[in-house]
Amino acid sequence: MATAPSPVSIRPAVAGDAEAIRQIYNYEVENTTATMDLVPRSLDEQVAWLGARSGAFAALVAVRPVGPGADGLFVNGSDEVVGFAALSPYKERAAYRPTVEDSVYVRRDLGRHGIGRLLLDEVCDLARSSGFHSVMARIEASGAASRALHAACGFREVGIEHEVGRKFNRWLDVCLMQKML
Length: 181
Ligand SMILES: CC(C)(COP(=O)(O)OP(=O)(O)OC[C@H]1O[C@@H](n2cnc3c(N)ncnc32)[C@H](O)[C@@H]1OP(=O)(O)O)[C@@H](O)C(=O)NCCC(=O)NCCS
Hints:
The protein is an alpha+beta fold.
């Protein structure tokens, strides 16, 4: 198993993490099909997103320590955000409440170092301790890294939604994966 660049740790996200989360997320908005969003998030939108992530619908960040003022690094107090994960309601209607949906994003230059696995395992533990029955992932079907990460963390594929999204002038399928808790 890959090991995270030492020492990466996981903590709850706080408002001061909004800009670092936004930078990681907006790269995917603008360059990949990992998210169906088409327009980059503003800082205000990212702050609002974080504000909605409380209680059972939490957001976590993966962080590593940085020296104050280190060149080229985003510094938030004494640590640097290198990834994030969150839980969101799966669907609005009330009977879906035992189910939750995850998202997980890792800074591109730090991929394949075990950070995604740390985040996803932790967010699934959080979902379990919050009393959810299962976690769903909705992954654009060509997202091999995300599908493999979720499989490595105990998710299994439960279906494909065909051509439900359109981005970069092509149709996108969505792979549904589920982990029973
Ligand atoms: C998907 C993502 C979160 C994976 O994060 P990561 O930190 O690189 O993943 P890890 O290093 O923890 O990998 C854990 C396991 O996932 C699988 N995996 C991760 N990346 C992979 C890749 N590119 N190809 C194949 N398997 C991969 C492997 O099984 C890996 O275990 P191993 O390294 O022991 O073989 C990251 O690639 C990412 O942020 N992608 C863009 C955003 C995205 O797609 N998010 C998901 C939206 S639902």
